[in-house]
Design a protein that fits this description.
This protein is an alpha+beta fold and 221 residues long. It is built from seven helices and five strands. The chain is elongated.
């Protein structure tokens, strides 16, 4: 359309902007006072700015809610997988499947700090005074998850020599309960999958789920 056609249309439909108020936020109308800004114009500018800020905040809240819904669904799947296990071997197997499929991790490890082992599951246990625990002094002493790139020593203990160098980022989650002490770890080939400073809430809840189920299975074994 030409400018003349637009002008004639608006002359014939003076109520147009009453029915399309949203357009007023997107167009610039010169003021007869030149560079001076009227109070109404200034107010409109402020309202527009606040409107955009609220839109951005709402978008952020929606994104957070969506992420939380996804995390809750994944935790539910993990809970079902653990409850379905009736032996320690089943629990280890189901834990690996659930974390890889639902949490999109590449590597999973659980180590229980305990004297003695279990038939066919020797790799699951680490004795309390083992040298293998030295790389995890910080996580075990603070009882807080550690995220980021693991040291080669940590990756070797958790995931094995064969793939240790492939683990680019990792969440090391201490499990410090009255009836069980251990380490749960999830790793990735991506450097930005688990980064320092990321939230720990779901990681702690994950360790509580895993720890509670393993305590019950250890008692039954």
């Amino acid at each position: 359309m030409s400018e003349g056609q637009v002008e004639r249309y608006l002359q014939k439909h003076p109520e147009f902007f009453n029915e399309h108020l949203n357009l007023l936020e997107q167009i610039h109308i010169p003021h007869p006072s030149g560079n001076a800004v009227s109070l109404i114009s200034k107010q409109l500018e402020i309202f527009r700015s606040r409107h955009h800020e609220m839109e951005n905040q709402l978008t952020e809240l929606i994104d957070i809610a969506r992420d939380n819904d996804t995390s809750i669904m994944r935790m539910h799947k993990l809970s079902l997988a653990l409850l379905d296990a009736t032996t320690l071997a089943d629990a280890v197997k189901n834990l690996n499947i659930a974390l890889c499929e639902y949490f999109l991790t590449d590597f999973v490890a659980i180590r229980i700090i305990k004297e003695g082992g279990h038939p066919h599951l020797d790799e699951l246990f680490i004795t309390p005074h083992s040298e293998k625990l030295k790389p995890f002094i910080k996580e075990l002493s603070t009882q807080q998850p550690g995220c980021g790139r693991p040291t080669l020593a940590q990756a070797r203990v958790l995931f094995g020599e064969a793939v240790a160098a492939d683990v680019k980022s990792c969440a090391i989650i201490p499990m410090m309960f009255t009836e069980l002490e251990g380490i749960l770890a999830i790793g990735s080939r991506e450097e930005d999958r688990f980064v320092e400073g990321m939230g720990h809430l779901f990681l702690k809840q994950m360790s509580e789920l895993v720890g509670t189920r393993f305590i019950a299975l250890l008692k039954a074994s």
